[in-house]
Amino acid sequence: MARPRRGLKRNRTYYSMAWPDRRKLKVYASDPQAGRHQRYRIRIDIENEPDLEPGPKGNIVEVIDYDSERQRYYRPINLNNPTILMQDGLDPNESDPQFHQQMVYAVAMRVIESASQALGRPITFRTSSHHRLRLIPHAFYGANAFFDPRLNAVLFGYFRADESDPGANIPGQNVFTCLSHDIIAHEVTHAIVHRLRRYFLEPTNFDVLAFHEGFADIVALFQRFSYPEILRDHIQSSRGDIQEEAMMVGLAQQFGEATGRGAALRSAIGTYDAKALSRTFEPHSRGAILVSAVFDGFFQTYERRIADLIRLATAGSGVIPEGNLHPDLVNRIATEATETADAVLKMCIRAFDYLPPVDVTFGDYLRALVTADYELEPEDHFNLRHDMIEGFRKRGIFPEGVASLAEESLLLREDWDLPPLNRRLVNSMLRGTSNVLDRSARRRNRLRRLQNYHNAIIETDDPEDVETDGADTGRVYPELWKYAMDHAAALGLDPGRTVAIRGFHPVHRVARDGSALVEFVIQVVQTDREQTEKYGGLPLRAGATLVADADGVIRYVIPKPMPFPGMSSDVKEEAERRETRFREFIAINDASNPHISWGSEAYFNNRMRRLGNFRALHGGL
User: Model's pTM, two decimal places?
Assistant: First the structure.
Protein backbone atom coordinates (compact mmCIF):
# COMPACT_ATOMS: atom_id res chain seq x y z
CA MET A 1 0.00 0.00 0.00
CA ALA A 2 1.30 3.45 -0.87
CA ARG A 3 2.56 5.53 2.02
CA PRO A 4 0.18 8.42 2.91
CA ARG A 5 1.51 11.81 2.00
CA ARG A 6 1.96 14.54 4.57
CA GLY A 7 -1.42 16.09 5.39
CA LEU A 8 -3.43 13.52 3.34
CA LYS A 9 -6.83 12.85 4.91
CA ARG A 10 -7.75 9.16 5.03
CA ASN A 11 -10.65 7.75 7.07
CA ARG A 12 -10.92 10.99 9.07
CA THR A 13 -7.25 10.69 10.11
CA TYR A 14 -4.43 12.97 9.08
CA TYR A 15 -1.19 11.12 8.40
CA SER A 16 2.08 12.95 8.74
CA MET A 17 5.68 11.91 9.12
CA ALA A 18 7.42 13.51 12.10
CA TRP A 19 11.17 13.82 11.89
CA PRO A 20 12.72 11.42 14.47
CA ASP A 21 14.24 13.04 17.54
CA ARG A 22 17.27 10.74 17.59
CA ARG A 23 19.77 9.41 15.10
CA LYS A 24 22.11 6.41 15.43
CA LEU A 25 25.62 6.48 14.00
CA LYS A 26 28.35 3.85 13.94
CA VAL A 27 31.62 4.61 15.71
CA TYR A 28 34.59 2.93 17.33
CA ALA A 29 33.86 2.56 21.04
CA SER A 30 37.56 3.15 21.73
CA ASP A 31 39.79 3.30 18.64
CA PRO A 32 40.58 1.24 15.52
CA GLN A 33 43.00 -0.98 17.47
CA ALA A 34 40.24 -2.18 19.77
CA GLY A 35 37.76 -1.90 16.89
CA ARG A 36 39.25 -4.99 15.25
CA HIS A 37 36.86 -6.81 17.58
CA GLN A 38 33.31 -6.43 16.34
CA ARG A 39 32.07 -5.74 19.88
CA TYR A 40 33.96 -2.42 19.89
CA ARG A 41 32.11 -1.21 16.81
CA ILE A 42 28.96 0.28 18.22
CA ARG A 43 26.06 2.58 17.36
CA ILE A 44 25.68 5.68 19.48
CA ASP A 45 22.49 7.65 19.86
CA ILE A 46 22.62 11.42 19.28
CA GLU A 47 20.16 14.22 18.66
CA ASN A 48 18.85 14.27 15.10
CA GLU A 49 19.33 17.59 13.34
CA PRO A 50 16.78 17.74 10.48
CA ASP A 51 18.65 20.54 8.72
CA LEU A 52 22.03 18.76 8.88
CA GLU A 53 24.13 19.62 5.84
CA PRO A 54 26.99 17.63 4.25
CA GLY A 55 30.17 17.90 6.27
CA PRO A 56 28.41 17.14 8.57
CA LYS A 57 27.42 20.72 9.32
CA GLY A 58 24.77 21.26 11.97
CA ASN A 59 23.62 24.00 14.31
CA ILE A 60 26.36 23.45 16.90
CA VAL A 61 29.35 21.84 15.17
CA GLU A 62 30.64 21.54 11.63
CA VAL A 63 33.26 19.24 10.18
CA ILE A 64 35.71 20.79 7.73
CA ASP A 65 37.91 18.08 6.25
CA TYR A 66 40.97 19.79 4.85
CA ASP A 67 44.18 17.74 4.86
CA SER A 68 47.00 20.27 5.16
CA GLU A 69 49.67 17.61 4.59
CA ARG A 70 48.20 16.60 1.23
CA GLN A 71 46.72 20.06 0.59
CA ARG A 72 43.29 18.79 -0.37
CA TYR A 73 39.69 18.72 0.81
CA TYR A 74 37.97 15.36 1.24
CA ARG A 75 34.44 14.98 -0.04
CA PRO A 76 32.06 15.73 2.87
CA ILE A 77 29.71 13.01 4.06
CA ASN A 78 25.95 13.55 3.73
CA LEU A 79 24.42 11.74 6.70
CA ASN A 80 20.93 12.40 5.29
CA ASN A 81 21.72 10.43 2.14
CA PRO A 82 19.04 7.65 2.22
CA THR A 83 21.60 4.88 1.72
CA ILE A 84 23.75 6.12 4.60
CA LEU A 85 20.74 7.00 6.74
CA MET A 86 19.16 3.53 6.49
CA GLN A 87 22.28 1.77 7.76
CA ASP A 88 22.96 4.15 10.68
CA GLY A 89 25.91 5.74 8.93
CA LEU A 90 29.00 4.29 7.31
CA ASP A 91 30.67 1.19 8.72
CA PRO A 92 33.86 1.89 10.71
CA ASN A 93 36.80 2.11 8.34
CA GLU A 94 40.28 3.42 9.13
CA SER A 95 41.00 4.36 5.52
CA ASP A 96 37.75 6.19 4.67
CA PRO A 97 37.90 9.97 5.34
CA GLN A 98 34.10 10.14 5.28
CA PHE A 99 33.89 7.71 8.19
CA HIS A 100 36.43 9.91 10.00
CA GLN A 101 34.04 12.83 9.51
CA GLN A 102 31.14 10.76 10.84
CA MET A 103 33.16 9.65 13.87
CA VAL A 104 34.21 13.13 15.03
CA TYR A 105 30.71 14.52 14.50
CA ALA A 106 28.96 11.71 16.38
CA VAL A 107 31.27 11.67 19.40
CA ALA A 108 31.41 15.47 19.62
CA MET A 109 27.61 15.73 19.57
CA ARG A 110 27.34 13.03 22.23
CA VAL A 111 29.74 14.86 24.55
CA ILE A 112 28.09 18.25 23.99
CA GLU A 113 24.65 16.80 24.61
CA SER A 114 25.80 15.17 27.88
CA ALA A 115 27.19 18.50 29.07
CA SER A 116 24.03 20.40 28.06
CA GLN A 117 21.79 17.97 29.93
CA ALA A 118 23.90 18.22 33.08
CA LEU A 119 24.10 22.02 32.97
CA GLY A 120 20.42 22.47 32.19
CA ARG A 121 21.04 24.77 29.24
CA PRO A 122 22.30 24.54 25.66
CA ILE A 123 25.98 24.83 24.91
CA THR A 124 26.60 26.92 21.84
CA PHE A 125 29.93 27.88 20.32
CA ARG A 126 28.86 31.01 18.51
CA THR A 127 31.50 33.74 18.40
CA SER A 128 31.82 36.95 16.46
CA SER A 129 33.90 35.09 13.84
CA HIS A 130 32.51 31.55 13.84
CA HIS A 131 28.97 30.35 14.50
CA ARG A 132 29.88 26.74 15.28
CA LEU A 133 32.63 24.65 16.81
CA ARG A 134 34.71 23.44 13.89
CA LEU A 135 36.16 19.92 13.76
CA ILE A 136 39.06 19.28 11.36
CA PRO A 137 39.81 15.52 11.20
CA HIS A 138 43.05 15.73 9.14
CA ALA A 139 44.32 19.16 10.13
CA PHE A 140 48.04 18.36 10.13
CA TYR A 141 50.65 15.62 10.21
CA GLY A 142 51.81 14.97 13.76
CA ALA A 143 51.09 13.01 16.94
CA ASN A 144 48.87 15.68 18.42
CA ALA A 145 45.32 17.02 18.62
CA PHE A 146 44.23 20.25 20.26
CA PHE A 147 41.54 22.89 20.63
CA ASP A 148 42.40 26.31 19.21
CA PRO A 149 40.28 29.08 20.82
CA ARG A 150 41.29 31.60 18.17
CA LEU A 151 40.00 29.38 15.36
CA ASN A 152 37.14 28.03 17.51
CA ALA A 153 38.21 24.63 16.19
CA VAL A 154 39.47 21.22 17.27
CA LEU A 155 42.38 20.16 15.06
CA PHE A 156 43.22 16.46 14.81
CA GLY A 157 46.59 15.20 13.59
CA TYR A 158 47.68 11.89 12.14
CA PHE A 159 51.07 10.18 12.24
CA ARG A 160 52.91 6.94 11.62
CA ALA A 161 53.19 4.33 14.37
CA ASP A 162 56.60 3.89 15.97
CA GLU A 163 58.80 1.61 13.86
CA SER A 164 60.52 -0.12 16.78
CA ASP A 165 57.72 -0.24 19.38
CA PRO A 166 54.31 0.14 17.70
CA GLY A 167 52.35 -1.96 20.19
CA ALA A 168 49.51 -3.79 18.47
CA ASN A 169 49.85 -1.57 15.38
CA ILE A 170 51.78 -2.27 12.20
CA PRO A 171 55.16 -0.47 12.34
CA GLY A 172 54.79 2.75 10.39
CA GLN A 173 51.03 2.51 9.86
CA ASN A 174 48.95 5.69 9.83
CA VAL A 175 47.31 6.41 13.18
CA PHE A 176 44.48 8.96 13.13
CA THR A 177 43.72 10.84 16.34
CA CYS A 178 40.27 11.61 14.90
CA LEU A 179 39.40 7.91 15.25
CA SER A 180 40.10 7.78 18.98
CA HIS A 181 36.87 8.14 20.95
CA ASP A 182 38.88 9.31 23.99
CA ILE A 183 40.83 11.98 22.12
CA ILE A 184 37.72 13.40 20.44
CA ALA A 185 35.87 13.57 23.76
CA HIS A 186 38.90 15.07 25.50
CA GLU A 187 39.43 17.83 22.96
CA VAL A 188 35.75 18.73 22.62
CA THR A 189 35.62 18.97 26.42
CA HIS A 190 38.45 21.51 26.27
CA ALA A 191 36.25 23.56 23.94
CA ILE A 192 33.33 23.27 26.38
CA VAL A 193 35.47 24.29 29.37
CA HIS A 194 36.78 27.29 27.45
CA ARG A 195 33.21 28.26 26.60
CA LEU A 196 32.14 28.00 30.24
CA ARG A 197 35.26 29.54 31.84
CA ARG A 198 37.40 31.48 29.40
CA TYR A 199 40.10 32.43 31.91
CA PHE A 200 40.87 28.87 32.93
CA LEU A 201 43.50 29.06 30.17
CA GLU A 202 45.46 31.68 32.12
CA PRO A 203 47.83 29.78 34.44
CA THR A 204 47.77 31.64 37.75
CA ASN A 205 48.51 28.59 39.91
CA PHE A 206 49.54 24.98 39.30
CA ASP A 207 45.95 23.72 39.36
CA VAL A 208 44.52 25.87 36.54
CA LEU A 209 45.88 24.09 33.46
CA ALA A 210 45.86 20.78 35.34
CA PHE A 211 42.15 21.24 35.95
CA HIS A 212 41.58 21.80 32.22
CA GLU A 213 43.40 18.54 31.43
CA GLY A 214 41.97 16.53 34.31
CA PHE A 215 38.38 17.54 33.63
CA ALA A 216 38.74 16.68 29.93
CA ASP A 217 40.00 13.21 30.92
CA ILE A 218 37.10 12.78 33.37
CA VAL A 219 34.53 13.41 30.64
CA ALA A 220 36.32 11.13 28.17
CA LEU A 221 36.62 8.27 30.67
CA PHE A 222 33.08 8.38 31.99
CA GLN A 223 31.60 8.73 28.52
CA ARG A 224 32.34 5.06 27.78
CA PHE A 225 30.25 3.94 30.75
CA SER A 226 27.19 5.07 28.80
CA TYR A 227 27.66 2.22 26.31
CA PRO A 228 25.94 -0.79 27.96
CA GLU A 229 27.05 -3.38 25.42
CA ILE A 230 30.71 -2.62 26.13
CA LEU A 231 30.17 -2.32 29.85
CA ARG A 232 28.43 -5.70 30.15
CA ASP A 233 31.30 -7.39 28.36
CA HIS A 234 33.89 -5.93 30.72
CA ILE A 235 31.84 -6.67 33.82
CA GLN A 236 31.71 -10.30 32.74
CA SER A 237 35.44 -10.52 32.05
CA SER A 238 36.44 -8.68 35.25
CA ARG A 239 33.77 -10.40 37.37
CA GLY A 240 32.46 -7.00 38.41
CA ASP A 241 35.81 -5.39 39.28
CA ILE A 242 35.93 -2.76 36.54
CA GLN A 243 39.07 -1.22 38.07
CA GLU A 244 40.95 -4.19 36.63
CA GLU A 245 39.73 -3.52 33.08
CA ALA A 246 42.31 -1.48 31.19
CA MET A 247 39.78 -0.71 28.45
CA MET A 248 37.47 1.01 30.95
CA VAL A 249 40.08 3.00 32.89
CA GLY A 250 42.80 3.63 30.28
CA LEU A 251 42.77 6.68 28.02
CA ALA A 252 43.75 6.59 24.30
CA GLN A 253 45.13 3.04 24.13
CA GLN A 254 46.10 3.06 20.43
CA PHE A 255 47.74 6.49 20.63
CA GLY A 256 49.78 5.44 23.67
CA GLU A 257 51.04 2.27 22.02
CA ALA A 258 51.63 3.82 18.58
CA THR A 259 53.89 6.50 20.08
CA GLY A 260 56.05 3.87 21.78
CA ARG A 261 54.69 4.17 25.32
CA GLY A 262 53.53 0.54 25.32
CA ALA A 263 50.31 1.35 27.19
CA ALA A 264 47.35 3.73 27.33
CA LEU A 265 48.18 7.42 27.42
CA ARG A 266 46.80 7.86 30.94
CA SER A 267 44.77 5.90 33.48
CA ALA A 268 41.99 6.72 35.92
CA ILE A 269 43.64 4.55 38.57
CA GLY A 270 45.98 6.36 40.92
CA THR A 271 47.70 5.65 44.20
CA TYR A 272 46.70 7.07 47.57
CA ASP A 273 49.56 9.54 47.90
CA ALA A 274 48.65 12.62 49.91
CA LYS A 275 52.03 14.21 49.07
CA ALA A 276 51.84 13.80 45.28
CA LEU A 277 50.45 17.29 44.67
CA SER A 278 53.46 18.91 46.33
CA ARG A 279 55.86 17.39 43.80
CA THR A 280 53.70 17.09 40.64
CA PHE A 281 53.53 20.19 38.47
CA GLU A 282 53.20 19.09 34.82
CA PRO A 283 49.52 19.76 33.89
CA HIS A 284 48.67 16.26 32.59
CA SER A 285 50.32 14.49 35.51
CA ARG A 286 48.78 16.84 38.05
CA GLY A 287 45.40 16.57 36.31
CA ALA A 288 45.67 12.78 36.60
CA ILE A 289 45.57 13.19 40.39
CA LEU A 290 42.21 14.95 40.05
CA VAL A 291 40.97 12.18 37.73
CA SER A 292 41.98 9.44 40.17
CA ALA A 293 40.24 11.26 43.05
CA VAL A 294 36.97 11.47 41.10
CA PHE A 295 37.23 7.89 39.83
CA ASP A 296 37.95 6.64 43.35
CA GLY A 297 34.75 8.30 44.57
CA PHE A 298 32.85 6.74 41.67
CA PHE A 299 34.21 3.26 42.30
CA GLN A 300 33.45 3.33 46.04
CA THR A 301 29.84 4.33 45.31
CA TYR A 302 29.56 1.69 42.56
CA GLU A 303 30.76 -1.05 44.93
CA ARG A 304 28.23 0.02 47.55
CA ARG A 305 25.40 -0.02 45.00
CA ILE A 306 26.17 -3.55 43.80
CA ALA A 307 26.84 -5.00 47.28
CA ASP A 308 23.26 -6.30 47.66
CA LEU A 309 23.39 -7.91 44.20
CA ILE A 310 26.61 -9.71 45.10
CA ARG A 311 25.11 -10.89 48.42
CA LEU A 312 22.05 -12.26 46.64
CA ALA A 313 24.14 -13.93 43.95
CA THR A 314 26.46 -15.57 46.49
CA ALA A 315 23.93 -16.54 49.17
CA GLY A 316 25.41 -13.95 51.50
CA SER A 317 29.04 -15.06 51.29
CA GLY A 318 30.14 -12.24 48.99
CA VAL A 319 32.51 -14.66 47.25
CA ILE A 320 31.67 -15.04 43.56
CA PRO A 321 32.11 -18.69 42.44
CA GLU A 322 34.27 -19.69 39.49
CA GLY A 323 32.82 -19.49 36.00
CA ASN A 324 30.85 -16.90 34.09
CA LEU A 325 28.50 -14.57 35.92
CA HIS A 326 24.81 -15.10 35.28
CA PRO A 327 23.64 -12.79 32.44
CA ASP A 328 20.91 -11.31 34.66
CA LEU A 329 23.49 -10.42 37.29
CA VAL A 330 25.72 -8.85 34.64
CA ASN A 331 22.81 -6.77 33.36
CA ARG A 332 21.92 -5.53 36.84
CA ILE A 333 25.53 -4.68 37.70
CA ALA A 334 25.89 -2.89 34.36
CA THR A 335 22.78 -0.84 35.12
CA GLU A 336 24.18 0.22 38.49
CA ALA A 337 27.56 1.08 36.95
CA THR A 338 25.92 3.15 34.19
CA GLU A 339 23.66 5.03 36.59
CA THR A 340 26.52 5.72 39.00
CA ALA A 341 28.81 6.91 36.19
CA ASP A 342 26.04 9.13 34.83
CA ALA A 343 25.46 10.65 38.28
CA VAL A 344 29.18 11.31 38.74
CA LEU A 345 29.59 12.82 35.27
CA LYS A 346 26.60 15.13 35.70
CA MET A 347 27.84 16.08 39.16
CA CYS A 348 31.25 16.96 37.69
CA ILE A 349 29.74 19.09 34.90
CA ARG A 350 27.12 20.84 37.07
CA ALA A 351 29.91 21.94 39.39
CA PHE A 352 30.99 24.50 36.78
CA ASP A 353 28.15 26.80 37.78
CA TYR A 354 29.61 26.97 41.30
CA LEU A 355 33.21 27.69 40.28
CA PRO A 356 34.87 31.12 40.31
CA PRO A 357 35.51 32.71 36.89
CA VAL A 358 39.30 32.89 37.41
CA ASP A 359 42.18 31.24 39.29
CA VAL A 360 40.49 27.88 39.95
CA THR A 361 42.01 25.29 42.32
CA PHE A 362 41.24 21.63 42.94
CA GLY A 363 39.89 22.65 46.34
CA ASP A 364 37.45 25.04 44.66
CA TYR A 365 36.28 22.16 42.50
CA LEU A 366 35.63 19.88 45.47
CA ARG A 367 33.41 22.52 47.11
CA ALA A 368 31.63 23.10 43.80
CA LEU A 369 31.04 19.34 43.38
CA VAL A 370 29.52 19.01 46.84
CA THR A 371 27.35 22.13 46.50
CA ALA A 372 26.13 21.34 42.99
CA ASP A 373 25.07 17.84 43.98
CA TYR A 374 23.49 18.98 47.25
CA GLU A 375 21.41 21.62 45.47
CA LEU A 376 19.82 19.05 43.18
CA GLU A 377 19.88 15.99 45.46
CA PRO A 378 19.86 17.03 49.17
CA GLU A 379 19.44 13.40 50.21
CA ASP A 380 22.70 11.66 49.34
CA HIS A 381 21.07 8.22 49.01
CA PHE A 382 24.21 6.39 47.88
CA ASN A 383 26.79 8.46 49.82
CA LEU A 384 28.27 9.73 46.58
CA ARG A 385 29.32 13.06 48.09
CA HIS A 386 30.97 11.28 51.01
CA ASP A 387 32.90 9.00 48.65
CA MET A 388 33.97 11.93 46.49
CA ILE A 389 35.24 13.86 49.52
CA GLU A 390 37.20 10.78 50.61
CA GLY A 391 38.74 10.39 47.15
CA PHE A 392 40.01 13.98 47.33
CA ARG A 393 41.18 13.60 50.94
CA LYS A 394 43.31 10.55 50.16
CA ARG A 395 45.18 12.60 47.57
CA GLY A 396 45.78 15.61 49.77
CA ILE A 397 43.29 17.91 48.03
CA PHE A 398 41.94 20.31 50.65
CA PRO A 399 39.96 23.53 50.02
CA GLU A 400 41.12 26.74 51.63
CA GLY A 401 39.06 28.40 54.35
CA VAL A 402 37.02 25.40 55.54
CA ALA A 403 36.81 24.11 59.11
CA SER A 404 36.71 20.42 58.19
CA LEU A 405 35.93 17.97 55.40
CA ALA A 406 32.40 17.43 56.66
CA GLU A 407 29.80 17.99 53.96
CA GLU A 408 28.25 20.95 55.77
CA SER A 409 31.66 22.65 55.96
CA LEU A 410 32.33 22.16 52.25
CA LEU A 411 29.00 23.60 51.10
CA LEU A 412 29.46 27.08 49.74
CA ARG A 413 28.42 29.98 51.93
CA GLU A 414 24.83 31.23 51.44
CA ASP A 415 24.51 34.19 53.81
CA TRP A 416 25.23 37.01 51.38
CA ASP A 417 23.64 40.34 52.19
CA LEU A 418 22.96 41.41 48.62
CA PRO A 419 19.73 42.75 47.09
CA PRO A 420 17.92 40.54 44.54
CA LEU A 421 18.26 41.01 40.80
CA ASN A 422 15.73 43.16 38.99
CA ARG A 423 12.48 41.13 38.96
CA ARG A 424 11.37 42.32 35.53
CA LEU A 425 14.72 41.27 34.08
CA VAL A 426 14.46 37.86 35.74
CA ASN A 427 10.93 37.25 34.46
CA SER A 428 11.81 38.26 30.90
CA MET A 429 14.82 35.97 30.91
CA LEU A 430 12.74 33.05 32.17
CA ARG A 431 10.16 33.58 29.44
CA GLY A 432 12.77 33.92 26.75
CA THR A 433 14.78 30.80 27.61
CA SER A 434 12.45 28.35 29.35
CA ASN A 435 11.51 26.42 26.21
CA VAL A 436 14.93 26.15 24.59
CA LEU A 437 15.38 22.61 25.96
CA ASP A 438 11.80 21.58 25.23
CA ARG A 439 11.76 18.68 22.77
CA SER A 440 8.62 19.70 20.90
CA ALA A 441 9.91 23.27 20.58
CA ARG A 442 13.17 21.97 19.14
CA ARG A 443 11.24 19.98 16.55
CA ARG A 444 9.42 23.07 15.31
CA ASN A 445 12.30 25.47 14.88
CA ARG A 446 15.40 24.54 16.80
CA LEU A 447 17.73 26.90 14.96
CA ARG A 448 15.56 29.95 15.61
CA ARG A 449 15.16 29.09 19.28
CA LEU A 450 18.90 28.59 19.68
CA GLN A 451 19.41 31.99 18.07
CA ASN A 452 16.89 33.59 20.46
CA TYR A 453 18.60 31.89 23.39
CA HIS A 454 22.00 33.13 22.30
CA ASN A 455 20.63 36.67 22.02
CA ALA A 456 19.24 36.47 25.57
CA ILE A 457 22.40 35.28 27.34
CA ILE A 458 25.93 36.61 27.71
CA GLU A 459 28.89 34.52 26.53
CA THR A 460 32.61 35.12 26.96
CA ASP A 461 33.43 35.43 23.26
CA ASP A 462 34.85 38.96 23.07
CA PRO A 463 38.27 38.52 21.38
CA GLU A 464 39.53 41.90 22.56
CA ASP A 465 38.92 41.17 26.25
CA VAL A 466 37.83 44.71 27.11
CA GLU A 467 35.53 45.98 29.82
CA THR A 468 32.40 47.92 28.95
CA ASP A 469 29.28 49.19 30.62
CA GLY A 470 27.29 47.46 27.90
CA ALA A 471 25.49 50.60 26.75
CA ASP A 472 25.11 49.21 23.22
CA THR A 473 24.49 45.56 24.11
CA GLY A 474 20.77 45.50 24.92
CA ARG A 475 19.07 45.61 28.31
CA VAL A 476 20.61 42.63 30.13
CA TYR A 477 24.29 43.56 30.15
CA PRO A 478 23.91 47.19 31.42
CA GLU A 479 21.66 46.12 34.32
CA LEU A 480 24.01 43.34 35.41
CA TRP A 481 27.04 45.61 34.99
CA LYS A 482 25.44 48.30 37.16
CA TYR A 483 24.50 45.70 39.79
CA ALA A 484 28.10 44.45 39.93
CA MET A 485 29.55 47.96 40.12
CA ASP A 486 27.12 49.00 42.84
CA HIS A 487 28.11 45.98 44.98
CA ALA A 488 31.74 45.55 43.90
CA ALA A 489 33.17 45.71 47.43
CA ALA A 490 30.76 43.02 48.65
CA LEU A 491 31.94 40.81 45.78
CA GLY A 492 35.59 41.29 46.75
CA LEU A 493 36.24 43.64 43.82
CA ASP A 494 37.77 47.10 43.68
CA PRO A 495 34.98 49.74 43.51
CA GLY A 496 37.43 52.06 41.78
CA ARG A 497 37.87 49.76 38.78
CA THR A 498 35.35 48.77 36.14
CA VAL A 499 34.16 45.19 35.70
CA ALA A 500 33.06 42.96 32.83
CA ILE A 501 30.11 40.56 32.78
CA ARG A 502 31.66 37.47 31.21
CA GLY A 503 28.69 35.13 31.50
CA PHE A 504 24.97 35.14 32.19
CA HIS A 505 22.83 32.01 31.85
CA PRO A 506 19.48 30.82 33.16
CA VAL A 507 19.60 27.08 33.97
CA HIS A 508 16.75 24.57 34.26
CA ARG A 509 17.45 21.23 35.96
CA VAL A 510 15.28 18.34 37.10
CA ALA A 511 16.15 16.25 40.16
CA ARG A 512 15.64 12.52 40.56
CA ASP A 513 12.38 13.13 42.45
CA GLY A 514 11.00 15.26 39.59
CA SER A 515 11.45 18.63 41.28
CA ALA A 516 12.80 21.50 39.19
CA LEU A 517 15.74 23.76 40.00
CA VAL A 518 15.86 27.10 38.19
CA GLU A 519 18.86 29.38 38.70
CA PHE A 520 20.72 32.30 37.14
CA VAL A 521 24.50 32.13 36.91
CA ILE A 522 26.48 35.37 36.43
CA GLN A 523 30.24 35.74 35.99
CA VAL A 524 31.81 39.07 36.94
CA VAL A 525 35.50 39.67 36.14
CA GLN A 526 37.80 42.56 37.05
CA THR A 527 41.22 43.04 35.43
CA ASP A 528 44.36 44.95 36.44
CA ARG A 529 46.53 45.30 33.32
CA GLU A 530 48.98 47.77 34.79
CA GLN A 531 51.53 45.18 35.94
CA THR A 532 51.41 42.49 33.25
CA GLU A 533 55.20 42.40 32.87
CA LYS A 534 55.50 41.50 36.55
CA TYR A 535 53.24 38.50 35.94
CA GLY A 536 54.92 37.20 32.80
CA GLY A 537 52.47 38.80 30.38
CA LEU A 538 49.30 37.92 32.26
CA PRO A 539 47.08 40.53 33.91
CA LEU A 540 46.03 40.21 37.53
CA ARG A 541 42.38 39.21 37.45
CA ALA A 542 39.75 38.91 40.13
CA GLY A 543 36.11 37.94 39.86
CA ALA A 544 33.03 36.37 41.32
CA THR A 545 30.37 33.91 40.22
CA LEU A 546 26.87 34.80 41.43
CA VAL A 547 24.14 32.17 41.62
CA ALA A 548 20.59 33.50 41.98
CA ASP A 549 17.32 31.61 42.38
CA ALA A 550 14.24 31.94 40.17
CA ASP A 551 13.17 35.05 42.13
CA GLY A 552 16.51 36.75 41.57
CA VAL A 553 17.67 36.29 45.18
CA ILE A 554 21.48 35.89 45.35
CA ARG A 555 22.13 32.56 47.03
CA TYR A 556 25.83 32.04 46.38
CA VAL A 557 28.81 34.24 45.63
CA ILE A 558 32.05 32.44 44.73
CA PRO A 559 34.70 35.18 44.86
CA LYS A 560 38.35 35.55 43.92
CA PRO A 561 39.05 39.01 45.40
CA MET A 562 41.19 41.89 44.12
CA PRO A 563 43.34 43.87 46.60
CA PHE A 564 42.03 47.41 47.07
CA PRO A 565 42.22 50.09 49.80
CA GLY A 566 39.66 49.82 52.56
CA MET A 567 38.72 46.18 52.04
CA SER A 568 37.84 44.04 55.06
CA SER A 569 40.70 42.18 56.73
CA ASP A 570 39.49 38.64 55.90
CA VAL A 571 38.92 39.46 52.22
CA LYS A 572 42.25 41.30 52.10
CA GLU A 573 44.00 38.23 53.48
CA GLU A 574 42.50 36.04 50.76
CA ALA A 575 43.37 38.55 48.01
CA GLU A 576 46.97 38.79 49.21
CA ARG A 577 47.20 35.01 49.45
CA ARG A 578 46.09 34.73 45.81
CA GLU A 579 48.66 37.27 44.66
CA THR A 580 51.44 35.59 46.63
CA ARG A 581 50.53 32.18 45.20
CA PHE A 582 50.58 33.66 41.69
CA ARG A 583 54.10 35.06 42.19
CA GLU A 584 55.37 31.80 43.69
CA PHE A 585 53.93 29.89 40.74
CA ILE A 586 55.79 32.17 38.32
CA ALA A 587 59.05 31.81 40.27
CA ILE A 588 58.88 28.00 40.28
CA ASN A 589 58.10 27.94 36.56
CA ASP A 590 61.00 30.29 35.83
CA ALA A 591 63.39 28.10 37.82
CA SER A 592 62.63 25.12 35.58
CA ASN A 593 62.32 27.01 32.29
CA PRO A 594 65.50 26.66 30.16
CA HIS A 595 64.31 29.37 27.75
CA ILE A 596 64.67 32.04 30.44
CA SER A 597 68.45 32.20 30.01
CA TRP A 598 68.49 32.73 26.25
CA GLY A 599 64.99 33.86 25.30
CA SER A 600 64.33 37.35 23.95
CA GLU A 601 62.87 40.18 25.99
CA ALA A 602 59.54 39.67 24.17
CA TYR A 603 59.56 36.01 25.21
CA PHE A 604 60.38 36.88 28.82
CA ASN A 605 57.61 39.46 29.05
CA ASN A 606 55.00 36.98 27.76
CA ARG A 607 56.34 33.69 29.09
CA MET A 608 53.35 32.88 31.33
CA ARG A 609 50.80 33.67 28.64
CA ARG A 610 52.55 31.18 26.35
CA LEU A 611 51.83 28.34 28.80
CA GLY A 612 48.10 28.50 28.04
CA ASN A 613 48.51 27.08 24.54
CA PHE A 614 46.85 23.74 23.81
CA ARG A 615 49.12 22.93 20.90
CA ALA A 616 52.16 23.18 23.15
CA LEU A 617 50.40 21.49 26.07
CA HIS A 618 49.35 18.57 23.87
CA GLY A 619 52.73 18.06 22.21
CA GLY A 620 52.38 14.43 23.27
CA LEU A 621 48.74 14.63 24.29
Answer: 0.90
